[in-house]
Design brief:
Layout lengths: L3 H14 L2 H6 L3 H5 L9 H4 L18 E2 L1 H22 L9 H14 L13 E5 L5 H8 L3 E6 L2 H15 L4 E3 L17 E5 H10 L6 E3 L9 H14 L7 E4 L10 H10 L2 E6 L3 E5 L11 H10 L11 H6 L12 E2 H4 L8 H8 L10 H11 L2
Parallel strand pairs: 2-3, 2-6, 3-5, 4-5, 6-7
Antiparallel strand pairs: 1-10, 7-9, 8-9
Length: about 375
Amino acid sequence: MVSIDVYYGNERTARAHAPLSAIWGFTPLTLRQYGYPVDVENEVEILRLADGEHPTVHGRFGITRYSPKEIALIGQVREAVARLSERVRGRASRPYFIFGGTIPCYRLIKRLLTIPGVNEGPHGAAVWEIGCGQGFLGSLLLADGVRYRGFDVTPVMYLWQNRLWTELIGENRIQEQAALPLDRRAAYPDELPAIHIPWWRYVREFTAAPPRIDIVVCDHALGELTDIALRHILHTAARAVEGSKLGAFVATASGALAQRNTIGIMQAFYQAGFGLAWYSNCWVALHRSSPLFHETYTLEQVTESFNNKVMYVTEKKTKLVSEAASNLEATTTDGATTTLQEAFPIHDDVSDEIAFCADMGMYDLGGISYAVRSLSADKEHT
C-alpha cells in the first residue's frame, strides 16, 4: 500500500522537474471547479469513496439485472470494501449503488474481448483505464481475471484505488508506481495482473514506451479532461494499441462536458487516428491500425448523425464491434438474472455517503440516516 505521505512526497518532487504543460494538463481541473475534495490528509477521508452514484442513475439498483457471475464478482468487491473500511474505521461499509453506473462498461469490455483473436496470447488482453475514479470498474475486471492498467490524476481517488485493489487481489499482484522511488524506472511486465500509474509516471515512462494495450477506456470522464490531457492521452493510446487485434478506445458516457462538447471529443479522436465503429448506447473507437478499422465511420458521417440525433448506420463487411456493443443487458447463459436489490438487500452497512444522500431524499433506506448515525456515534464517544 502506498502511504499518503509517500504519494504526496513523490508527487511534489516530480512536479519540481515536470514541464509546465504536464502540470497544467494532468490536474483534476473539473473536479476542483465543482468543489470536489481531491486531496486527503488521513485514511478515514479516503473511505468517502466506498460507494456513491450519480443521482440520475441511482434507480438502477432496483431495475438493472445482473447475471449470476456478475453478482458473484460484485460480492467479492463488496467484501473487500467491507474488510478495508472495518480495519480503518472499525465499522464495515459495503457498496450498493456504484455498480449501476459501472456494469455497462464492464459488459462492453468483456464482450469486445470475445471477438476472435483479441484475448489470445500467454497473458490475455490488456485494458488501460484513464480516470479510474472510485475504482469499481477496475475491481470487477481484476476480480474477473482481466489484465488491467489504471491511471489517475486525482489524489483521493488514486489512494482509494490503491487500497481497494490491494485488498481485492493482494499487494504482490499489483505494481504500485506511486510508491516507487523517483530514481527507479518503472517497468510494465505483461504477466502482472495490475499496474497502477500516477500522472508523473505516465508522462515519463509510460509515454516513452507504451505497453501493448488492447482496450483503452475512459468512462464518464472524456468531457472532464483538460485539452492537454485529452490530446496527450489519445496520442499515447494510438501507439499503445498498435499491434492489437482490436485496438479500441471505449466509453459508455462522456461525463460532465466541462472542458469540451461531444463534437470536440469526436474530433480529437479522429485527429489521433481513431474512428468510431459504434456510438449509440456507448462509444467504441478503433485505431486505424486495427484489423477491424473497416467497421468505422467517417467523421463527417458521425457529425451529421449526432446533429440529427440518430446513429448513422451502413452495411459493413463485418459487424463484430456493433454486435458486441449494441446490447449491454445482462446475459442468461449462466443462470437467471437478478437485481442488486434482490441480491443485496439494504442493511445498516451502507456508507456514510449513501446515508447522507438518503437525508436529501435521493434514496429510501428504510430509516437509515447519516444525521441519526452521526449523532449516535457522538453519544457512543461521550
